[in-house]
Amino acid sequence: MQINKTMLAALMLGMVSQVHAANVTTELGVLPLAPSILSGTITHDTVAFTDTFNFTMPTTGLSALLADFQITFNTQSLYDINGLTANLYSGSNGGAFMATLNGSGTDQVNGSFGLTTGNDYSILVSGTPIGTSGGMYAYAFTATVPEAETYAMMLAGLGLVGFMARRRTRMSA
Hints:
With 173 residues, the chain is an alpha+beta fold. The protein has a single domain (2-147), classed as Jelly Rolls, CATH 2.60.120. It has helices spanning 2-14, 148-172, and strands at residues 19-20, 25-30, 38-44, 49-56, 64-73, 81-90, 96-100, 108-116, 120-129, 135-144. It has a five-stranded mixed β-sheet with strand order 1-3-10-5-8. Strands 2-4-9-6-7 form a five-stranded mixed β-sheet, with no helix packed on it. The chain is elongated and about 75 Å long. The protein starts with a helix and ends with a helix.
């Protein structure tokens, strides 16, 4: 999976370029379409944190796109984080709650959501660094266009539903 390779690259890059603060707000702008990925690392001291990632879904000819999110951290004693959670919100800076990303509370948090194109969203990441040097995590975000097979399956399903509805109307008449 492409996003896993990116996470490894982001962790390695994080040793050179990383944010080091109490609470971080990151303005990602418009998410790139896959295969492009926005990624980076954030390091915290030993104080609990809540980081905010604000982003906008790209505008395309489609009404919705899939947004893929992955956040991982190293469970070694140097940069460990306790209770890492990530929540998705509509609107910037934590608007209306939408979902908790899968794996919250573990060392890898991820999720894939169908989000409306052109709208603003945010992800709030929180946890408590417990490593000897604080805590560090890597993130990777991207937007993907559903593949043709997805549309074919949806159209086939709609066709079957229409066929069954028509059949029932004929039988009851």
